[in-house]
Amino acid sequence: MAKRALVSVSDKTGLIDFVQQLVSKGIEIISTGGTKKAIEAAGLPVLSISEITNFPEILDGRVKTLHPAVHGGLLAVRGKKEHMDAISELGIQPIDFVIVNLYPFKETISKPDVAYDEAVENIDIGGPSMLRSAAKNHRSVTVVCDPADYQTVAASLDADNEVPFELKQKLAAKVFRHTAAYDALIADYFTKQVGEEFPEKLTLTYEKKQSLRYGENPHQMAAFYSEPLKNEATIAAAKQLHGKELSYNNIRDADAALGIVKEFTEPAAVAVKHMNPCGIGLGANINEAYDKAYETDPVSIFGGIVALNREVDAELAEKLHSIFLEIIIAPSYTDEAIQVLENKKKNLRLLQVKFTEDKQDFVQYTSVRGGMLVQDLDTKGYEDVKEDVKIVTERKPTDAEMESLKFAWTIVKHVKSNAIALVNNGRMVGMGGGQTNRVGAAKIALEEAGDKTKGAVLSSDAFFPMSDTVEEAAKAGITAIIQPGGSVRDQESIDMCNKYNIAMVFTGMRHFKH
Ligand SMILES: NC(=O)c1ncn([C@@H]2O[C@H](COP(=O)(O)O)[C@@H](O)[C@H]2O)c1NC=O
Fold it and tell me: Relative to the CA of 182, which of 175, 234, 425, 479 has its CA 20 to 30 Å away?
């Protein structure tokens, strides 16, 4: 008996070519409304699904293939006599191939302001049902959900129109991933509609963006997956204009650098090494901002990642070109700047990232052995706490100190805890991060800053458990401090500030970054 293929696709890419090949091998084609029309228009023989089901397509296409004549033909186990007798008695014929791709739900909800009913109408029911039936019975049925597989399948057909089991199994695995991802997007859409924050099941779906040469270290395998609903203002959506492929560590560092530079609306430059900022500068223009970021730590910036929130021109490009950098991130580059940066630097990665607003519902996932932690991204800043800010010392910060304190508070959030950042005149002059005690982080920051601590301000991501950090800061010439407060021994730190005429501000908000 001739083999039969059921074809029902929303995306008609490559359809006619593939059907043509199946027809030429003597395979009978059965199809639904729009797909059938396309096949007929190409002059190829095709049966209507209604001829198989003896039922019209109804409810605007909501019910067309949902019928025992279809699912019996797909699910009957070919080697099982009872199954074959059962379908035969009912006049159901086996279906050997399913070529289905689904209603474009993702594309529909990606459209701005899509109507709820339009989204709902784009939830495919019959398609996933056929895909799942066929994938379950993959020993007998070949199931194709991706036009990219058409040629592989066509080329694999033997004289009896059989497909090797290994390929059928691979295609079935792909189908279950595909329908799971499709349902995950639908689930996410509905979960957001009803405003549930942390539902009882976490059904994430990501799409492979690229294989990576290796992970954090060369002996670790890795890949990069991106969110299906694109956020343009991310590293995942960045356009690479030049340079070597991004590595695993590059992607994480670039994301960290972008996260910091996007805190600022004024021209800002950020240098990052190993996820921590090693240079941050603000300026009247981006050139000045970069000079300040560079001066933070001219040693650490070597081999680092630089993120800028303004266009890179030729003058800035010359400066960036003069040192070894792994990546530059900016919203745009002039043509001259690209010429300068590409010259003799084939590896230097140039990324163009949109600096539009982030989605407000950015969530952070951190895997632990046996589970996943989920939290809101720490997007809060000085603006969110300004009503609650308290000046706790006898001396109030001057206006200039207050500006520096706000800046210092903004950046310390991005340093690994325990974190201390020092700021002087629109630039970070030192930082200590990832230390297991706070005074240790402060000592590192103060030492790094050297005599740039004179007149600088200090920020701390969490409260001081004792007054030793204030004492170290005072000795180095720090004039003002910003920290959350909240220690049972806050008074000791306040007294120490008063002793050295330091102004101290409590924000009431902690910014741990573990
Ligand atoms: N309802 C059904 O029985 C049904 N059967 C197949 N579909 C989908 O209909 C689409 C193809 O429709 P058409 O051939 O009319 O262009 C495919 O994406 C397929 O997955 C269905 N549509 C939605 O559920």
Answer: 234
C-alpha 90/C-alpha 205 separation (Å) is 40
Predicted pLDDT of residue 97: 98
Residues of the chain whose pLDDT is less than 70?
357-361
Distance (Å) from CA 165 to ligand 1 centroid: 27
CA 408 – CA 461 distance, rounded (Å):
10
Q: Which of 231, 242, 228, 304 is nearest to 270 (CA)?
A: 304
326 lines ligand 1 (CB under 6 A): no
377-387: per-residue pLDDT in tens?
A: 999 999 999 99
Distance 304 CA to ligand 1 centre (A): 51
Report cis status (omega within 30 of 0) of the bond before 418: yes
Question: Is the C-beta atom of 102 inside 6 A of ligand 1?
Answer: yes
Q: Structural domains in the chain?
A: 4-193 (3.40.50.1380), 207-352 (3.40.140.20), 383-506 (3.40.140.20)
pLDDT, position 1: 74
What separation in Å is there between the alpha carbon of 66 and the centre of ligand 1? 10
Catalytic residue check, 219: no
Q: Tell whether ligand 1 has an atom less than 6 A from the beta carbon of residue 486.
A: no
Helices (H), 66-164: 68-75, 81-89, 105-110, 116-121, 126-136, 150-156
For residue 161, report the distance from its CA to the centre of ligand 1, in Å: 25
Tens digit of pLDDT for each residue in 433-487?
999 999 999 999 999 999 999 999 999 999 999 999 999 999 999 999 999 999 9
Active site residue 136: yes
- Which listed residue (209, 242, 244, 274) is catalytic? 274
Complex confidence, ipTM: 0.84
Tell me the whole-structure pTM to 2 decimals: 0.91
